[in-house]
Amino acid sequence: MDKEIKKKLASNWFKLLQNTICNDIEKLEGKKLKFKSKTWNRNEIKDEGGGEFRILKDGKIFEKVGVNFSEVHGKFSKEMSKKIPGASKDPNFWASGISIVMHMKNPHVPAIHFNTRFIYTTHGWFGGGMDVTPCIQDLKEKSFLHNELKKMCNRHDKKFYKNYKKWCDEYFYLPHRKETRGIGGIFFDYKKNNWEKDFKFVTDLGVTFQMISNSIIQLKHKKKWTEKQKEIQYVKRGRYAEFNLLYDRGTKFGLQTGGNAEGILMSLPPIAKWN
C-alpha cells in the first residue's frame, strides 16, 4: 500500500475518533456544556500542518477533558534526528495522532488517558496506549480494565497483552517517587511489522477505550464523595502532572517538534496539590 494512503487512513481515523469521543462526552454531560475548539498551525509562514484541540471544563462529570488531534510534517532538528528511528539520514517527517485526557469531578472516577499515533520518517510506525489513574483503590475496576484490554489484545495476538501491559507498567513509573502513576493499562511503540494488522489493532484499541471509559464513568459518576477524598484526588493529580512534565514522550516530542504548547499541555489537571 502506498505510504500516502496509509497516512490518510490513519489521520482520518484519528479525526473520526476525536468526533465520536467528543459526542459521547457531550451526551454524558447533557445539552448545556459543549467543547471549546481551537485550531492551530505548526508553522505560520509555510504549510506544515497543524491540528485541533477541544477542551470541556467544569462539567457535572468532567472537571476537565481534552481531546487533541494533530497532523503535522516538517524537518527534525539535528538533535531530534539522532533520536527518532529512520530520521538520521533524512530529517523529513510526518506525524498524526489523537490524545485524550479526562480529569473527573468525582474522585471515585479515575483519570483516564488514551493516545494513538502514526509517525513516518523513512519508514512508518504506530504507537500509543491507554491507562487509568484512580485516587481511590478499586480492585474490581482494575480487574475490569485489564480483562477488557486482554480480550482486545488477544483478538490480534496472544502475546500483545503481556508485553504491552509490562511496557505500560515500566513506562508510567515515577522514578523520583518510586511509584507507578496508576493501575496501568497497555502501551506500545515502534509497531511496524504489518501495516494492515497494526492499523486494525490501533482502531480496535480506540473503540475499546471508548467502551471502557464509558463503562467506568456510567458506573461511578453519581457515587457520593467527601472533601477528604477530593483532597486525595488533588495530590494524585500532582503526581500526574509530575509524570507528564518530566517523563512523558508525547509531551517531549510535541514540544521539541514545534507542536502547539496549549494543546500538548492540555493533559495537565485543572487543579493539583502537593503535600
- Ends apart, CA distance between termini: 53 Å
The poorly predicted ranges are none
Overall SS class? alpha+beta
Largest sheet: 7 strands, antiparallel
Strand tally: 9
Over the alpha carbons, how many angstroms does the gyration radius reach? 18 Å
Overall outline: globular
Strand content: 25-35%
Number of helices: 8
Helix-residue proportion:
40-55%
Strand arrangement across the biggest beta sheet: 1-2-3-4-5-6-9
Mean pLDDT figure: 95
Order of helices and strands: HEEEHEEEHHEEEHHHH
Protein name: coproporphyrinogen oxidase
InterPro entries: Coprogen_oxidase_aer (IPR001260), Coprogen_oxidase_aer_sf (IPR036406), Coprogen_oxidase_CS (IPR018375)
Pathway: Porphyrin-containing compound metabolism; protoporphyrin-IX biosynthesis; protoporphyrinogen-IX from coproporphyrinogen-III (O2 route): step 1/1
Subunit structure: Homodimer.
